[in-house]
Amino acid sequence: MHIIEGGLDDPRVVELLHTHLVRARAETARGSAHALDLSGLRAREVTFWSAWEGEAVVGVGALLRLDGGQGEIKSMHTAETARGQGVGSAMLRHIMAAARARGMSRLSLETGSWPYFEPARSLYTRHGFVECGPFGDYREDPNSVFMTRELNGT
Predict the structure, then answer these.
(1) Which of 14, 54, 61, 63 has its CA 20 to 30 A from that of 38?
(2) What fold does the segment set 2-150 form as a domain?
(3) What does the pLDDT read at residue 33?
(4) How do the domains of the chain map onto residue ranges?
(5) Maximum distance among all alpha carbons in the chain?
(6) E strand residue ranges, the chain
(7) Contact 48, 62 (CB under 8 A)
(8) Which residues are registered as beta bridge partners of 152?
(9) How confident is the model at residue 28 (pLDDT cuts 50, 70, 90)?
């Protein structure tokens, strides 16, 4: 597997992102899904990566630069056929390394509270993320779980 920056013009990536948006919106309450669409992922303050196994896209993830040396993980998704193969962990480690290289001291994220999102919450917990309160423009929402991790060189 290799991870590359970009891919938003590749129809295979667009299809995986569409699946991500549809599932995220279907698996949480109306108004509580915060996944970025293609235009959001193209924003200047967002860096997007795609993970590939041969010619197949197996995962995606993005980093949004926030104020104060902080970043937010966005649009993490692993293709159904690649789940359980370490794609999510590899993408998360890649995003964490990129955030450190850009001088960020903290990474945060929002994910769903519904059972569908339990594998994501477990992944983040295994990588040192802990629950926190809302950050940035988020507000308290029973459908959201907010997590954060300090990036102090580890």
Answers:
(1) 54
(2) Aminopeptidase (3.40.630)
(3) 80
(4) 2-150
(5) 41
(6) 2-5, 46-53, 56-65, 70-78, 106-112, 130-132, 144-150
(7) yes
(8) none
(9) confident
